[in-house]
Amino acid sequence: MAQGFNKYFNSTTINGRANVAKVTYASIALFFIYLRMRRGSKSAPPPSADDSSCSCEKPEKYVIPMDEQEHECD
């Protein structure tokens, strides 16, 4: 197996160096895609503005409360 590996991934020929570069770029791309897919599955949708569980006034834009104790809807 080492002979076949050395034939395609050697450092003395231009083709061998090109193959090493291609494998390097492909592994970086696969790692990036893996991280994007793993991170994307954890994201939660933002809360909707139509939620009527709170009796306080709703602002025009979604604003995160500074402290849970200051929020009067509890």
Automatic annotation (TrEMBL):
One of its GO terms (cellular component) is mitochondrial membrane. The chain crosses the membrane at residues 20-37. Pfam families: ATP_synth_reg (PF14960). The keyword Iron does not apply. It is a single-pass membrane protein. Keywords: Membrane, Mitochondrion, Transmembrane, Transmembrane helix. The keyword Transmembrane helix applies. It is found in: Mitochondrion membrane. InterPro entries: ATPMK. PANTHER family: ATP SYNTHASE MEMBRANE SUBUNIT DAPIT, MITOCHONDRIAL, ATP SYNTHASE MEMBRANE SUBUNIT K, MITOCHONDRIAL. This is ATP synthase membrane subunit DAPIT, mitochondrial-like. The lineage of its organism: Eukaryota, Metazoa, Ecdysozoa, Arthropoda, Hexapoda. The gene is LOC115628973.
